[in-house]
């Protein structure tokens, strides 16, 4: 049950046997059903999650009332609204489960215990934040600099396993186009591959 999260942390820092046991004790197992919310707009994010099994989407609602998906999370990903989690501010976005999911959750207080109680805990926090920062900057840069076709190609590169797991209107929302435009992009790309 905790092996995946231990492995994910060990990809960033080393853990000895006692530290693995301690880290596992800080994460609580929780199951969510498809369409359940982990976090709704206006709520404060109280935990960081790790996906053992399942799929989530991050989205915000624009001024026209349309949902704009800006990220996905799947197996072996950590998930959270980090700005809300860190400063306890109301979230401006939503995190929703797209499949029945099994996750491990760690509270803000227990995450601070992890940082302070294991040998490389502070280093883990710093490196994890650096990864989040790079990921966020790349997403922002893509929104401003990439065409919808380039964003679709990036979606295919970053999430090759999601094409069969999510509806196409979620893909189009992520790319930033309406479903008919995504269909045209896919047709153009398919016709180029023929030659």
UniProtKB/TrEMBL annotation:
UniProt cross-references to Pfam families, sorted A to Z: cNMP_binding
SUPFAM superfamilies: cAMP-binding domain-like
Domain Cyclic nucleotide-binding residue range list: 15-114
Signal peptide interval: none
Protein name (database record): Crp/Fnr family transcriptional regulator
């Amino acid at each position: 049950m905790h092996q995946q999260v231990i492995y994910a942390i060990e990809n960033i820092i080393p853990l000895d046997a006692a530290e693995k046991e301690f880290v596992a004790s800080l994460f609580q197992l929780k199951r969510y059903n498809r369409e359940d919310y982990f976090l709704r707009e206006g709520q404060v994010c109280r935990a960081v999650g790790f996906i053992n099994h399942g799929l989530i989407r991050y989205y915000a609602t624009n001024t026209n009332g349309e949902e704009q998906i800006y990220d996905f999370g799947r197996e072996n990903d950590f998930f959270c609204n980090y700005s809300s989690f860190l400063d306890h501010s109301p979230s401006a976005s939503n995190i929703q489960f797209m499949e029945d999911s099994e996750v491990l959750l760690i509270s803000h207080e227990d995450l601070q215990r992890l940082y302070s109680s294991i040998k490389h805990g502070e280093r883990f926090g710093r490196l994890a934040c650096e990864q989040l920062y790079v990921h966020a900057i790349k997403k922002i840069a893509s929104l401003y600099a990439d065409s919808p076709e380039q964003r679709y190609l990036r979606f295919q590169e970053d999430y090759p396993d999601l094409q069969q797991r999510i509806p196409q209107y979620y893909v189009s929302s992520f790319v930033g186009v309406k479903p008919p435009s995504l269909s045209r992009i896919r047709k153009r790309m398919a016709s180029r591959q023929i030659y």
